[in-house]
Every structure is written in structure tokens, then in C-alpha cells.
Amino acid sequence: MAASPRLLKSDSIADNMPEALRERRYLMKRCFARYVQQGRRLMKLHHLMDELEISIDDQAERAQVLEGTLGYILCSTQEAAVVPPYMAFAVRPNPGYWEYVKVNANDLTVEGINATEYLKLKESIYDESWAKDENALEVDFGALEYSTPRLTLSSSIGKGLNFVSKFLSSELWAEKEAAKPLVEHLLSLQHLDDKLMINDTLNTPAKLQAALVVADVFVSSLPLETPFQNFELRFKEWGFEKGWGNNARRVKETMRSLSEVLQAPDAVNVENFFGRLPTIFNIVIFSVHGYFGQANVLGLPDTGGQVVYILDQVRAMEEELLVRIRNQGLNVKPQILVVTRLIPDAQGTKCNQELETIEGTKHSNILRVPFRTENGILRQWVSRFDIYPYLEKFTQDATTKILELMEGKPDLIIGNYTDGNLVASLMANKLGVTLATIAHALEKTKYEDSDVNWREKDPKYHFSCQFTADIIAMNSADFVITSTYQEIAGSKDRPGQYESHAVYTLPGLYRVSSGINVFDPKFNIAPPGADQTVYFPFTETQKRFTQFHPTIHELLYNDTENDEHIGFLQNKKKPIIFSMARLDTVKNITGLTEWYGKNERLRNLVNLVVVAGFFDPSKSKDREEMAEIQKMHMLIQKYNLKGQFRWIAAQTDKYRNGELYRCIADTQGAFVQPALYEAFGLTVIEAMNCGLPTFATNQGGPAEIIVDGVSGFHIDPHNGDESSNKITNFFQKCKEEDEYWNTISEASLQRIYECYTWKIYANKVLNMGCLYSFWKLLNKDQKQAKQKYVNMFYNLEYRNLVKTVPIPSYEIPKPVPQTTVRPQSLKRRQPPRIKRWFGA
């Protein structure tokens, strides 16, 4: 497709399109006539281009159209609703920016329309009478965001923490009384009944600033390592409480940071100061569906990467909390509770155990709460798509238990996936606690046109409930944690997962003219890391898991074929290119195999080893995987790969997998991630952590992880020849330049250490929790107004939708056994404080 000119930001599609159509009027009349001749339908970009090619059969004329303004507009169109004689275009010139225009195919007149008008035309394809109903429910969350500042550049999306810091730095310096909310925030800080930072003596900005000057002079006269306890009483006389630091040096740094915030703030210092505040001690993390546990759960229904993510997240956050609390000079034990569902029929796991200590932590536990209905406790696993009838009661039961165990409210609540985010939003709203949400995956974007076709899929997936729960949680959240930019706003050609919730419709149910705004500063990118006790550089020989070397050598090099590996490597001295993923179409392992098979230069330089799926199609229950298995066998035969290719069945031991990456690095090989699309790319992070040069898809998250040509390489999964040649050229250069492989290996490690570790993640997320707690206070009135709107939508729409989800009949009225186990590090100080919140 030819490159097209960009419009200026001041230009609108509606202003430019009429002239563009006039320039090619004859051709466009013919093209638009073809577009509308099949009647009402929804067209995607590829449909528009296919029919344009048929309509304009002259290649030169077609190229002229595509190279001009009209070509740019058409190429920026995501979809078009055809309702003869009209076509309504949803045009996305840049990530986050949308414009809607309506064209009359008869006379090519153009009219700019708004989101609601576009949706009505789109709805008329599926439910014309509802589309014309003036009383059809329309949801507009944007109407309640009249005063919230917004980012403006597509490139700034996901940098909410930085934006809020900049905004606060300008506001706090704007006028003398602007710092009053900050003083009120500092006065509100406490842990249990202990005041922190300042007391009521310093209740104005002027008093606080004056006291800071006196305290700074005093603390500057002390030896830097003087414990805070030595001068705590003197500080208390001036209005200061504990929390400033554990010694004179730390106290002085925090006080000067606050003085700068009050006098001449900048964004970096604002974030630094709020990160030092003793704001967060107790965290609740919700992950409701599936089997959440630490052993024997991966591979069970609805149980996968989210469990690994959360367990690694908890360990990192507890470690960071302990460092912060120590630096703040406090004697406080943090608590993190991962709250999930208790499943009585636990399938040999610990999912029927109410409390479980999280390994590698001192103060973190899994709390399991059962699903209850009027018929009793649900004993069996239930699909994540059928989970909605249980969530409201689950929230109530979980809240009661959390308040009892923590002896108070948590300081931060984090939700995960649709169900966990909804539960987290209900609890946060009830208790007035700062809320963060993590989508992991938004199902709406996985199934094309699942919104307009919701009726067809609802009996199986209950998307009406899921999409409603998603939009409720998004709008309730104080901040949203994502792993990549593309998760929020996609790429130039593809909308992001969150962006697809900006404007959409469920015909016959409700339309959303403003669902979520990706320019909202609540959006933040905090990519996870890999467990660095498992995935570490191959050069750290003393740490390596040498006990796995015999089995790994057998996996890679044994010439005998069996149930775990087929194919063999004749020349065992050649470097290995390696890939590990599910065996499905999107992961594109068969695509990589074909690239290798077709490239003789590459085959002469390296061997190929893949870890994926089964060898026998009959062992798979997935039709797509079965087809990929058969395709893999076909490719092995077609390209005569035996002697250069090893196919290893899926591996689940993460410790052995970590050592496998390092053994590939020992061969001076490389990791290849060839997916057609990859939302994040955890295997890319794992490989780079091990010092393995990595080639990864340019479609999705890996394009953000790797700096092309520096810390690895981008490959185009849709251009196999180009990709295989890029890999070939790398290994050819390694043969010619002894240090080239090491240069890329070291750069990949540097990239990981700078951006992709759990320590960086934990620090960033806790900084978000501290800063957004204050941001919520500043926008309290608007937040409350919007929450009332959200609550109304929940009560009037979501609760009715839940009633359509059938509840299984195999529930047994049976009380949950009450455990006497207490979570680690918790000892009850007094009778439960639940009465304060529930009045019981």
C-alpha cells in the first residue's frame, strides 16, 4: 500500500474529504457505488481496499488515489458502516484520535458526525428499530470529566504518573494557598492509631514551611547516622511525627524534598517526595477466577500466566515495602493479601485451604473465600465466563474477612482481569480506598465485532456481563497498570485494547458514546520482569542449575526420538536458534520453522530447536493446535529438516526452562519470538535476562522491549524472507566479528536492568499508589460525581444482566470449615474493627 500524506492536526477529515473526493469524482462514484451495492454491512479496512482494487482496475490510477489525501483517509479507517445510500467511516489518523464522517454514495457529499450518530448508523445494521429508539440507553462517562486535565499527544499515552507529577508541580506553585490540600493530605497520614509526618500543630502551609526551616537547621547539626529516636521528642514539639526517616540524613533529605515541593516544585521532585511518604502498608490484590495457588495449578482451567505474574508481583512489592518502611524509620509490618476463590473440590491443589503463606515472603498470604448463593457453597470450578452471579456476594464476604485479618482498611486495592477488577472496584468504593486495575486481557478485542454480535456469543461467553464489568472497573479505577503502550493505544494501524472501549455498542442493550479516554492520566505502563532467581545470565556460572544439564543435553542432542522430542541435530557444534511457545496460529512456531526450512544460508549456520505443544494431534483438544501439529510434521518432511531441527514437547518446569535458555546461550545461539501478535512477550524478557540475543516480532509488546539493532532485533512475522535473512546476517556477522554476539548479549542485559525488572515495577507501582492517593483527594468532587454515575450503571444494568447467567445446580448447602490458621506476621491487637465500617 502506498505511503500517503498526513493531515495537519488542525485539519479535520470532514474538511479534507470533500475536496479529495472531487479530485477523483468519477473513480470514487464507481467505488462508492460498489461499497453500497451489497446493502447494509460493516466493512473493515481490508474490505475497503479489496473492493477499491476491483473498482479501480488501472494500477496507476489506483496508486494515485492511495498516494493522495483520500488514500490517507481510507488507510486510516478502522471500519465503515454501510447503510445505503450512506457510508459512515470511523477514521483513526493517530493512536487515540478518532473522527467520524458520513458520505452519501449518490452525490459524494460529506458530513462530519459525532460518536453517537456513528453508532446509530452502525447499530441499524444489526437492530434497526433499537437504533431509532430515542429512549435507547446511551452511556457517556466522559460527560463527568469536564475538569480533569488530559494528555494531548499520542506519544504521551501511558505516562500518567509523569503527567500528574508535572501538573502538581505547576499547581502547587500557582498561588500561596495551593499547597493547602497537600498539608491536609499529610495530616491524614497514619498507621492504625499512630499519626505520621505532621500533627495538627502544622495545619497551614505557612506554619509547615516555617517549621521545616527550624527543623532543617537542627537536623543539619547532627551526625548523618543519628537515629531518629534520638531527636523524636524535639521534632514532636515542633509538630513533626515519625515517618520522615530512620536517621538524620534521611530526615534531612525528606524535609528538603518537601521544602522544594512547597517553594519551587518540579515533576521529578514531586514524584520523589510522594514516593517517600508512609502512605502504603497494607495491600489487597484480587485474582478471583481459576485455581490460584503456588503448586500444581498451572495448566488447570483458566489458570496460567496471571498466577505467575501476581506471585512475582507480591514478592517484589513486599521487598520494596520493607525497604521503604525501614527508611521511613517505622516499626511496621506490611501485609499483602492475595484474595481469590476457595474451591472445595480442589483437584489435588491447596485451593480448598483458606489461608496460605506465599513462599519467599514474610508478610504475604493467599486468602481464599468461597462462592456462595442462596443454595449454599459452590464446590466445583466455574469458568471465568460464568463467574458473574457470585461476585457481589464474594465481595461482601471477602471485605468482611479482609477487615478482620488486617484489623483495618487496606491502603491500596489492586484488581486483576475482569472479575478481580470488578470486585476490587466494589470494595474500594465501599471503603474509600485507592484502586488500581490490571486487565491482563480484555476479551472484547480477542473476538472481532464481539460487541455488535454480543447476542450470538452471550449464551456461551456472557460478554454483556463482561464488557459491562470492564467499563465499570475502568471508570472506577484511580490508576490503571498496563505492561505496554500497545495495550492502551495499540499502534499506528491497530487500536489498543483499552482504546477499543472508547466508543462501542451492544445493539439492543446500550451504546457507549464515551467509555474510556486513553489520554486520561490514570493510564500507566509498568512492565513486569522475570523471576531473576530463575532467569539470570549464563555467565553467572556459580548460580547455574547444573543438576539439569544431563536432562537438557538429552533434550537437545539425544538422537533417539520419543514422546518428549523428535528430530535430531547432526552437527552439535553449530549455534542453536531457539523458540518456546504454545503451538497455535498466532504464536507462529510453524512460520519460524518454514522460514528456517526455506533459507539455506541460515540452515548452514545454525540448528533450530523449538519447544511447543504435542507431537500427536490426537492428544490435543484444540482444533487450531491439532492443525498446527499436522502442519509442523508436513514442514519437517517438505524441507527435509531432520539433522538440523529438534522439536521438543511443551515444558512446564520453569527452573529447567531457565537453564535451557542459558544452555542455548552457551552455543552462542539466539532466541526467536515470531508471533503474529504478542501483547507483552514474557519469553522475550526471560531470554534477555539470560543474556540470549533475541529476535522478536514487531507486532505488539516485544517491539517496545527491544531496541532494534542494539539490544536485540525486530522481525516482521508477515515477511518471513526478510526475517530469516535478518537472523542469517546476525550469525554471519558473529562468524566474522568475534565480539559481536557478546555485544548484543550484554546490551540485552543492560536493557533488562534499566527497564524490565520486578524491582523497577514494584517501585513504580508503589509510587503510583502514593501519588494517586493525593490525586484522588484533589479531584474528590468530580470523583464522587462520576462514582455515583458508575454505581447507577452497576445497579440498573449490570445487576440485571447477571440474572441471565445460569447458576449450576450442583451446589451443596455446606458451611465452609473455619480455619484457625492466622496469616503470617499477623497477631490480633484488639477485637475486630469491622464495626467501624459495617456498624455490626
UniProtKB/TrEMBL annotation:
A single MF term (Gene Ontology): sucrose synthase activity
EC number(s) recorded for this UniProt protein: 2.4.1.13
Protein origin, superkingdom: Eukaryota
Keyword Transferase attached: yes
Sequence ranges assigned to domain Sucrose synthase N-terminal in this UniProt record: 10-123
Residue ranges of domain Sucrose synthase EPBD in the record: 159-246
Name by which UniProt lists this protein: Sucrose synthase
